[in-house]
Design a protein that fits this description.
Four copies of one chain form a homotetramer. Chain A is an alpha/beta fold. The first copy, chain A, contains 14 helices and 15 strands. Chain A has a seven-stranded mixed beta sheet with strand order 2-10-9-8-7-3-4, with helices on both faces. In chain A, strand 14 and strand 15 form a beta hairpin. In chain A, helix 2 packs parallel to helix 11. Chain A starts with a strand and ends with a helix. The relative contact order of chain A is 0.17.
Chain lengths: ~350, ~350, ~350, ~350
């Protein structure tokens, strides 16, 4: 029997989601997200975000959502500023470029873009003699939590938001792991802060307890117009849209989303502590559901006979950074087994 | 209580699909369609198609599938030949053009593209003095069944396939309603014929009993390479890919797909007969699950108090063509009620 | 010796243009259209258009200009309304689609789009149940003169402009043959009317006496921002931009542009009259520099031994519509020879 | 009187080019590059390249040429490998991304991409678990001479070409300054080497004595098909194509191209030597027509009252790297004046 920690989408969905899908299965509703479930889910999300005028749309997956949002904002000659590690820059097979836009990488540290880096890039562009020969920065993309499990502090987020507003750059937050970020150790950011500081963001469902689904929240009025055209054009308008509405209702009607997130983070920190106790270092200090211990290759091999995890990258001749990922579905007993194994190393 | 006939995606999924999702929910599998469920579903589909070497991929929705397949085939200066009524030409918000390609409309009748029209368009292009000033036709797109419920005969399909091969144009068949087409009244085409005559096609799940999902079958070896890159770039690679595999296993492991299709067509023909008996004409003679009676406006209004259906288009000052759509989920009692109402008109 | 009438770009440029290029050849200027020649040419064009606040940019060729202007205006899910015969729809190898946009063809007659057709298309779109499933009309494209030599009357232009403003659709006029249109027989439109009724248009140089070059005039303030980025991205920013400025100075400093246009039209009408006198019909009644007589195939063959012209299209079994095209460079003696030949038929 | 050294496109064209344009001005030819001048120019270029079967096409400018060639080669999910300093990566306003493709930057030094960096990037991609989640490298782009004046040695070029062939990556060489590279100090590469080692490249005219124009040479048979469609779609097909043919005839019929290149390099090296003699350092050691001395800011200011040059970038608080650029048109007396001034500093 193998315990799987290689990603946060190994299982299906939280059982209450499946139950609700079964209960509602034969109800007839209109398609394309215009049904009453989607409306109710949108209301719940607006309330959770503390913004009653936000537009909420439901899409199926992350790459699709990123491509749709970015394409809806930029003019053709504009690019999106991102950390080099940003998901849009490395793991979406060029979906953003397929839509016609350059990803402009700016300085980042451990997956977190810095406000200074954005400012510097903007100043450089504006100072150019002939800026029209280069791509114009048109928006900023960050991930919360980031691709390496790190999480912006409120001060960092406010600084990024401020520089974005100074230069009229819409700030887009990829929240594929929004819940895990908000539930992370020491996090001083709330969903309401996100809604206050971003222009548009999404709340991930796929990695957070749903079968699939991402809820896009558009806060900035200027970005709301015609977004449904963009969804449809990018192939993201689910015929049976209610499947998304129903799932987000379950996640948001009584705090399940946050509860599942906390569970995942708790298990991840147990794993972190186990490796730390044995003196292993980490590629990056992560307070959320992804942990990146650096292991001697022999030990990584030994662990891999009982546990599945991702090989992240070689750090030197004989050591490898690996990723252990927990999720809403991680069983504490699986973590127990892992911890015991680590202790025995 | 309203009976809904406005489309074939009003309900969730066949109960056996939900059951299977529930049963498998906590199993841990790898993501992105590389799990054993997807492999098994692909095998079942290859067998159903009578082609053991076809590549099978699972995507979420129709627009996404069309954009992905077409983008994977065409060179930048090529276009896709389609009937003017083709879904890609009218109802996908320009997804094909967003991917860089022109939809070249050719002569069609009642939603069916003719082999002659394809041939004529090719001859015109090749005869041009300076063909490079115009878009080069690069493939052919047809729908089976078509957007207006009509279905190609085997002879028509063979003729189109022959002209495509003569001009080296890959033939792509949109099978969002493949089952309803194959189960249509008088149909002499089988899924094996489809697999023999097309270069690539898909078998629709969304409108045919699944929660969502379309199974792309690539028959032509030249079109197989790197298709997974295309899926990912177009935002169609579902993280929990097994959800698609599981659904298509249920649909194809013991004939459920065909059974549900036959059910839908049977109910549609009952509706057709009821309108016909009362002397109503039809926009188009459809042998499949979509029926387009032409109704005096007063009668359309009267029906709409109890039944939901789509207004298709005005045909003259006082008459409107409407669409009644059945599906795998249509209850015979709902059709009974509709028939009774029609008789009473 | 063959006389060539097959197009309006058979020769180089008006001699005064070459003279000016020679005179200024060793002057050193900054690149990319920011030199004093471009500034002066822009001033001359603003004056000719009666609009001192218009932005004027110089590009090299027509397809490039169309792609650049359209890409600068539309959002990704929008399309451009055009006559089916529009250059962007048939003779630019899908450059507009390559930029991501659908060309939406609307009703037209003899190459002229009608205001009614635009209105109808808009009403249809707005009346749709779920307009976001279809491409949103985002602007209107017309050609002046049209691809078949016809020319809008002032009343027609005003009607199109009015419907465009009613629906907030920017009106873009392709003026590759602007001069020939304005100089056409019976034309009641002036360049100032064009500048008043369009949001953006261009004044063609390539077919009108320059070596190459098209002057884009942006009248609508909302369309001015960042246009130089669009030019550069679309490969239209000439390094030695002054070559364009110098040419348009020559064409506009003392009326040469209009003078050359009148010459071309005068010669074309002589050709028209000759064919007419002999009883030949025409594909379309053209008052400008392109004439489309319908000839029995034998006569077309006979003419082709001494004169080059374009075969336009077969009109029936034994007749073909051909195109005779004059230009700024057409020698009256060549026309004399053609007329004599026609008379002798 | 200011002497201009800020770029290599400050003047018009070599006088013999203008003479030839004047002589041929009233000759009537067919358009779009299918005239006898283009054919003759193509022959001359094939001979200069030592490859009688290459396809030769003429385009107007560099950005357009890069976008056209790259778009003609890559499949949608592929990217082009380039040095970070590559023109396509920084100075084309995202034209490559507008065409749908990511620029994949790989390790480079002083503007020169290394074979090792290409190999490493390929190995990384192929070793990935799930390569389809990332952009597939599809070709390699290098500049000869590079954007910072440096030039590949024959050994370096052969190494890059070898790694490209090993991984089936077409090698595209941007030759906007091909002549200046070939004529550079110590260069051991010939045009025939370029034609032997690249799959496609272009020979720049714009910066090398022509009014404008770039000659694309396609060596690899697999890349030849339908290239004219790509030119047209990308707005690069000049109506009066002969203007390009005539210019390249003048440049290649009796060695003018090489002669002008040598002149420019000679003058650049005189400038280099003058700065070097005074003890100034350089941003990069350049053997070609662009020189990048590092100057104390006060001295840069002093020079700028008599000479125009480009500010490249600040290297520290008080020093700036600047660019002096010579060309086919640089007058030795201008260089004399500059040298004298430098000596007097």
């Amino acid at each position: 029997m193998m315990y799987q920690f290689q990603c946060d989408y190994n299982e299906g969905a939280h059982p209450r989601i499946l139950e609700r899908l079964v209960e509602t299965n034969f109800e007839q509703t209109v398609g394309y997200g215009e049904d009453h479930y989607c409306r109710k889910a949108a209301d719940l999300i607006r309330t959770a975000c503390g913004n009653q005028s936000a537009d909420v749309h439901f899409l199926v997956g992350g790459t699709q959502t990123n491509a749709t949002v970015i394409s809806s904002i930029l003019r053709p000659y504009q690019g999106v500023i991102s950390a080099g590690t940003g998901h849009i820059n490395v793991h979406e097979t060029g979906a953003i470029e397929h839509g016609g836009h350059k990803v402009l990488t700016a300085g980042s540290c451990n997956g977190l873009l810095s406000a200074e880096a954005v400012q510097e890039l903007m100043e450089l562009h504006l100072a150019e003699d002939g800026p029209e020969h280069t791509v114009q920065p048109g928006m900023v993309y960050i991930s919360f939590s980031s691709e390496t499990g790190t999480v912006y502090s409120l001060a960092q987020l406010e600084a990024i938001s401020a520089v974005c507003r100074r230069y009229s750059l819409p700030l887009f937050i990829d929240g594929a792991r929004m819940g895990y970020g908000l539930a992370s150790e020491g996090c001083d950011v709330t969903l309401k802060d996100i809604a206050r500081l971003a222009d548009v963001f999404y709340i991930g469902g796929t990695k957070q307890g749903a079968l699939f689904g991402e809820a896009v929240v558009i806060v900035n009025d200027a970005l709301k117009k015609d977004f449904r055209y963009c969804i449809k054009q990018n192939g993201g308008m689910l015929a049976k849209g209610r499947l998304l509405g129903i799932q987000f209702i379950v996640l948001f009607e009584d705090g399940l989303y946050h509860e599942l997130s906390e569970h995942a983070v708790r298990q991840a920190l147990r794993i972190r502590d186990a490796f730390e106790s044995k003196g292993f270092g980490f590629l990056v200090e992560s307070p959320s559901n992804q942990q990146f211990p650096i292991l001697p290759d022999g030990i990584a091999d030994a662990l891999s006979s009982e546990f599945m995890f991702s090989v992240w990258r070689k750090v030197d001749e004989s050591h490898t950074a690996v990723r252990f990922c927990t999720s809403w579905a991680t069983r504490p007993e699986a973590v127990d087994a892992l911890i015991e194994k680590v202790r025995s190393l």
